[in-house]
């Protein structure tokens, strides 16, 4: 008998893992095994790890039922078991289906073990476990189970919700013991799934974590399950348990779980039907009139319009005055007609293909924006509704809309989002697929970017173009990205209008209460293809077979209300016919419209800005010296003592150097920028600077926000304390995002023209990830949508040996997108030529080289009578370059922005002696100045800086061409030939030359050869390329040049040594920099004072700079914590190769092998490339263009093109002149001369 029993139990033991705990079969098995085990122990079986610790419920229950019918039909052992007094059939009550703790195995005699020190009992044995106090543990366990079931519905009930109107994806109903079908499956209830199939009449006390009881404290299990099913597994699926705030979760529970909280009155239902009639009727009318036109209709998700109207109504009732809507193309026309109340006749006129009366390219009708201010009839309050124009890039309007909303809040003084609210309408595929959604979501709680809650509405068609969700995302829902900001997500069936309206109400109330984002996922379908001309049966045949059989939502809801007696059939038909008449009248009116205006679809009007303003008047940009001193003194002063602010010692040294500059009346880059910001703040202009690390500056040059060294979150910004009535100044480090943050700042600039809004890239290269915003919004926004913007992009740019991704701001891309004609010479005789040229171009591109020009350029952005985006390529090494400084007189009232800066040295004073006229732009000018002096060609080579590249300064360029009639014309750039400004300036130089009939010259190219990579990462190759560029312009250094350089360096070193001995210091010499370079040669005697690593050491009072200190100091490649940090750029690679010679230091000899120049593998020659044709050929071509005559005489040849010197020569020429030094043979280049006797900070 025992063997038979063993065989039976061995078979059923394997079934233990089937998870039958809590079921009726489990109870049978537990009671059977309890009896078996007790019997076995009586018979002397002491298997502590008994085979009877598991069971097979199906097997035992089958044997038991078989035994009841015929006791002799089972084995003798089972007959003995079932006949014994220890066996009784279990009753089906929930109290007998508690956790397994009720039916534990009989206790086994425990062996006393030695307890840990301090835990021994009086008898010497281990501490005994405390006995359980007497209580009804079974009942407690059952209540715990009920609480777990409620929590399961709250957390995972949405998994069983009936959300799909097509029924393709949905829960499978299961029948309970009372015959009720329930949606909650095992994936919802998990281990408690079987509990719902037991006695449903047992009454339980409701826990405090639910509000389903309302005023009732006790409910039966059946009522608990029924209410939870209606709330969480009906047509609404709520995801909110990921929210960490108990206040928010309790608020949502109260709104969803309270009995009667989702009920609607008859009047409310009738209003929903009327709005749904308009939404569906508009799409049906367009389908009837324009059956083959693309309109991206809303059929299948028609309820979205009533849901948005409910949000608008409730928001205005809460005090919102301005609502901004961003959306893609689907449903846009319906939103314009029924939400914004744009005249339907104007919308229909867009289908007729009419001629526009104003300039611009326009856009397709389903991309247009609108601005409407109207009376909300439900709340009797005025509301402004703006739909922002959007390209086909779907979700990229999101950050633009958020920036515009934030700017409106600032203008209204709204600090909590109570009067301005953004709504973003998403598509299901784009919401989960486009990264800008994630980037925009992460702006929601950042202090300087938050909009205090955005309503996100997803028009979920369950298909992206032709791609099923299973192939377009890995997450269960398209809205899972919203969980990163703990936003509640309300999934709702689009064919249940009442549920959709309730979700809309809860969403706007949640946003009003908590100022946080909330998502409504309207799960519907797309009745047509991606557009109306598309055939969806090609790719989704089964889905569209169901769609064709499905009644529209309007018909389903009308039938429901007619059945409920809310409306009659005749009333519904009257609603439909009434709206059809409205559309027919609008259709007739649209036929009378003969022309359209792009400006009537503008989404960001600036009322009053253009009225009475002379757009062609350029106001002066200079300011008084007193204002400069006030701003400079405040900007260079530490926080006042009363602030008890502990400032970093390095910052104090920087401030001291700024103070010295103010006393010397000279400004470096950071001070010139501060002059621009401070003067605009004084004039009441709001200034906003945003981007990665802008508070300090990527290159540690700005330091606008000072941080307390011993207290967290204590900061000081001196520009906030300039004047008592100044405008606010906002400077903030952004998230590590270029696309969303640049889009945000562009939207911010759209809201008001009376603000200077800037975005600075950490490096110019990083604008790559924001290319969609640049191309589709900034570059073309005014042309497409008549929408001006004055946003400023500051892109650090220059070739300084920092690698391919930290060098180029991609000037060529911005210039290529400029819309000025290169073959048309403008009318430069026009008195308003400069302003007209700025007004007619799509944006302004500059590559500035002086702090004064930066100052005037930024102020000009606000002083113009119109707004244009400004793309400025900011410097890196020039931030501290001793020559890149401007005297105060270049900022005063008599100064202005210089589009080009001519040569004011000896070459400019004697133009007839000039043999070469070199045009350049940006930082390369300072390299050319240094090399021109080293080659002793100051009188024969003129250097002209083109500060404003676009629009091209034809008038000033022509003047320079006439000033140097005998000079050879060169364009020099440090970028590669297929990059930089060359491809832009070349045809414009030709146009300027062709203007003069007597001109036979052409401009030749001097720079790096074409390359796929923006820059090399090899310092040796970088120097070789630089040397080849210089050699192609100035030739090789002569022995006399080299002797002169060596003598000058010796003189500087002697002077530095004398200065160091006269000023002894106890500080140790500076440690070698981290970039791998050898430290500057230390002078004998006491070491000089160690300069701050982020700023150059100021020359001594004698005007000479100390030997061994590089004028362009270490530029740390601050690529942010999220990106891998690059090695610090040393003095020789942080500025330019010429800085190696100026500083007297160079890379360690081991870095540059003697034969590396010849053995270095290189795909292309480091020699700079020329035009591809000889100058004579180009001149002949130009001559033929002019008169068709014979070719003009060939000018003097420049001589053979020389390659870079050998490494031996390079090592020999390491010591070179310091940029910061002064001597009798060189005058300071630039637009103004500095007093050489004055010390330079």
Automatic annotation (TrEMBL):
Q: Name one GO molecular function term.
A: metal ion binding
Polar residues compositional bias, start-end: 80-98
Which InterPro entries did the record assign? 2-oxogl_dehyd_N, 2oxoglutarate_DH_E1, DH_E1, KGD_C_sf, ODO-1/KGD_C, THDP-binding, Transketolase-like_Pyr-bd
Region of interest called Disordered, as start-end residue ranges on this chain = 80-138, 1049-1241
Q: Where in the cell is it found?
A: Mitochondrion
Cofactor(s), names only, from the UniProt record:
Mg(2+); thiamine diphosphate
Q: Where is the Transketolase-like pyrimidine-binding domain?
A: 667-881
GO BP terms, alphabetized: glycolytic process
Entry-linked Pfam families: 2-oxogl_dehyd_N (PF16078), E1_dh (PF00676), OxoGdeHyase_C (PF16870), Transket_pyr (PF02779)
Check the record and name the PANTHER family matching this protein: 2-OXOADIPATE DEHYDROGENASE COMPLEX COMPONENT E1 (PTHR23152:SF4), 2-OXOGLUTARATE DEHYDROGENASE (PTHR23152)
Instruction: Write down what this protein is called.
Output: 2-oxoglutarate dehydrogenase, mitochondrial
Q: Which gene underlies this protein? A: Ogdh2
């Amino acid at each position: 008998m025992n063997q038979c029993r063993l065989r039976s139990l061995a078979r059923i033991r394997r079934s233990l893992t089937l998870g039958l705990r809590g079921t009726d079969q489990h109870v049978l098995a537990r009671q059977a095994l309890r009896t078996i085990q007790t019997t076995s122990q009586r018979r002397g079986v002491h298997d502590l790890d008994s085979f009877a610790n598991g069971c097979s419920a199906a097997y035992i229950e089958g044997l038991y039922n078989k035994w009841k019918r015929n006791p002799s039909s089972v084995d003798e052992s089972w007959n003995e078991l079932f006949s014994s007094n220890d066996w009784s059939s279990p009753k089906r009550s929930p109290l007998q289906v508690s956790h397994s703790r009720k039916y534990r195995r009989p206790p086994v005699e425990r062996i006393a073990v030695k307890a840990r020190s301090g835990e021994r009992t009086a008898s010497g044995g281990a501490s005994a476990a405390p006995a359980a106090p007497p209580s009804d543990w079974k009942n407690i366990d059952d209540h715990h189970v009920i609480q777990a079931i409620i929590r399961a519905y709250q957390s995972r009930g949405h998994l069983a919700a009936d959300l799909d109107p097509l029924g393709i994806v949905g829960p499978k109903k299961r029948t309970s013991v009372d015959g009720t079908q329930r949606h909650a499956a095992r994936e919802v209830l998990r281990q408690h799934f079987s509990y719902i199939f037991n006695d449903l009449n047992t009454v339980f006390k409701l826990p405090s974590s639910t509000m389903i009881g309302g005023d009732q404290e006790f409910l039966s299990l059946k009522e608990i399950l029924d209410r939870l099913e209606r709330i969480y597994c009906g047509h609404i699926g709520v995801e909110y348990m990921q929210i960490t705030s108990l206040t928010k979760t309790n608020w949502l529970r109260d709104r969803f779980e309270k009995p009667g909280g989702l009920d609607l009155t008859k009047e409310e239902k009738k209003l929903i039907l009327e709005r749904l009639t308009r939404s569906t009727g508009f799409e049906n009318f367009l389908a009837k009139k324009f059956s083959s036109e693309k309109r991206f209709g809303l059929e299948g998700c028609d309820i979205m319009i009533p849901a948005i109207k409910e949000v608008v109504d409730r928001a205005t009732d809460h005090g919102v005055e301005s609502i901004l809507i961003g959306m893609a193309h689907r449903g846009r026309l319906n939103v314009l007609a029924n939400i914004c109340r744009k005249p339907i006749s104007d919308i229909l006129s867009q289908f007729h293909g009419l001629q526009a009366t104003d300039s611009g390219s326009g856009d397709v009708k389903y991309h247009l924006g609108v601005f409407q201010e109207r009376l909300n009839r439900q709340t009797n309050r005025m509301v402004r509704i703006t739909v922002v124009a959007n390209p086909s890039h779907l979700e990229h309007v999101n950050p633009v809309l958020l920036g515009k909303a934030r700017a409106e809040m600032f203008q209204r003084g709204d600090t909590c989002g109570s009067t301005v609210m953004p709504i973003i309408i998403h598509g299901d595929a784009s919401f989960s697929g486009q990264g800008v959604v994630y980037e925009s979501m992460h702006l929601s709680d950042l202090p300087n970017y938050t909009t205090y809650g955005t309503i996100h509405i997803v028009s979920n068609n369950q298909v992206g173009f032709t791609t099923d969700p299973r192939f377009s995302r890995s997450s269960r829902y398209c809205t899972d990205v919203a969980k990163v900001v703990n936003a509640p997500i309300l999934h709702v069936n689009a064919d249940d209008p009442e549920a959709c309206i309730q979700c809309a109400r809860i969403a706007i109330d949640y946003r009003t209460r908590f100022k946080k984002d909330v998502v409504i996922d309207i799960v519907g379908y797309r009745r047509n293809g991606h557009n109306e001309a598309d055939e969806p049966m090609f790719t989704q045949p089964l889905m569209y077979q169901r769609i064709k059989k499905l009644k529209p939502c309007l018909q389903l809801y009308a039938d429901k209300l007619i059945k409920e007696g809310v409306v009659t059939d005749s009333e519904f038909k009257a609603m439909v016919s009434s709206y059809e008449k409205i559309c027919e009248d609008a259709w007739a009116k649209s036929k009378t419209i003969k022309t359209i205006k792009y400006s009537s679809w503008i989404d960001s009007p600036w009322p009053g800005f253009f009225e009475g303003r002379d757009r062609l008047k350029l106001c002066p940009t200079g300011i008084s010296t007193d204002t400069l001193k006030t701003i400079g003194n405040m900007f260079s002063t530490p926080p006042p003592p009363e602030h008890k602010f502990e400032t970093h010692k390095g910052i104090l040294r920087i401030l001291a150097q700024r103070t010295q500059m103010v006393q010397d009346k000279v400004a470096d880059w950071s001070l010139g920028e501060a002059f621009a910001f401070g003067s605009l703040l004084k004039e009441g202009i709001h200034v906003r600077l945003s981007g990665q690390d802008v508070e300090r500056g990527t290159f540690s040059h700005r330091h606008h926000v000072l941080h307390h060294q011993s207290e967290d979150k204590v900061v000081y910004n001196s520009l906030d304390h300039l004047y008592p009535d100044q405008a606010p100044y906002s400077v903030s480090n952004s998230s590590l995002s270029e696309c969303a943050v640049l889009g945000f700042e562009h939207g911010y600039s759209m809201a008001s023209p009376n603000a200077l809004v800037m975005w600075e890239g950490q490096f110019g290269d990083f604008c790559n990830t924001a290319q969609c915003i640049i191309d589709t919004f900034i570059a073309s926004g005014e042309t497409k949508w008549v929408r001006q913007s004055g946003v400023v992009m500051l892109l650090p740019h220059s070739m300084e040996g920092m690698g391919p991704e930290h060098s180029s701001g991609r000037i060529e891309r911005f210039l290529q997108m400029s819309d000025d004609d290169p073959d048309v010479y403008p009318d430069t005789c026009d008195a308003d030529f400069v302003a007209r040229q700025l007004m007619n171009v799509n944006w302004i591109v500059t590559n500035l080289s002086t702090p004064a020009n930066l100052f005037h350029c930024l102020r000009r952005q606000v002083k113009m009578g119109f707004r244009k985006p400004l793309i400025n390529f900011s410097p890196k090494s020039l931030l501290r370059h001793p020559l890149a400084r401007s005297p105060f007189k270049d900022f005063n009232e008599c100064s202005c922005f210089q589009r080009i800066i001519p040569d004011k040295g000896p070459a400019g004073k004697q133009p007839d002696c000039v043999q070469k006229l070199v045009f350049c732009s940006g930082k390369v000018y300072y390299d050319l100045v240094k090399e021109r002096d080293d080659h002793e060609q100051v009188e024969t080579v003129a250097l002209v800086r083109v500060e404003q590249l676009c629009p091209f300064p034809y008038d000033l360029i022509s003047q320079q061409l006439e000033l140097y009639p005998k000079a050879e014309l060169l364009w020099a750039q440090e970028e590669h030939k297929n990059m930089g400004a060359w491809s832009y300036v070349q045809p414009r130089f030709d146009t300027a030359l062709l203007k003069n009939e007597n001109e036979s010259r052409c401009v030749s190219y001097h720079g790096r050869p074409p390359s796929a990579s923006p820059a090399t990462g090899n310092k040796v190759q970088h120097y070789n390329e630089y040397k080849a560029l210089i050699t192609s312009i100035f030739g090789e250094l002569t022995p006399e040049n080299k002797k002169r350089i060596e003598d000058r360096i010796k003189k500087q070193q002697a002077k530095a040594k004398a200065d160091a001995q006269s000023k002894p210091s106890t500080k140790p010499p500076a440690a070698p920099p981290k970039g791998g370079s050898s430290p500057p040669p230390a002078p004998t005697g006491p070491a000089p004072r160690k300069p701050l690593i982020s700023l150059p050491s100021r020359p001594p009072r004698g005007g000479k700079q100390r030997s061994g200190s590089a004028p362009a100091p270490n530029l740390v490649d601050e690529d942010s914590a999220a990106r891998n940090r690059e090695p610090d750029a040393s003095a020789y690679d942080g500025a330019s190769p010429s800085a190696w010679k100026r500083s007297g230091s160079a890379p360690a000899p081991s870095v540059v092998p003697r034969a590396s120049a010849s053995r270095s593998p290189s795909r292309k020659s480091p020699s700079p490339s020329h035009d591809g044709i000889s100058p004579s050929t180009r001149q002949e071509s130009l001559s033929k263009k002019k008169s068709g005559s014979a070719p003009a005489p060939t000018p003097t040849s420049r001589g053979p093109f020389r390659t870079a010197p050998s490494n031996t020569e390079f090592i020999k020429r390491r010591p070179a002149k310091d940029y910061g030094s002064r001597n009798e043979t060189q005058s300071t280049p630039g637009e103004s001369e500095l007093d050489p006797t004055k010390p330079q900070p």
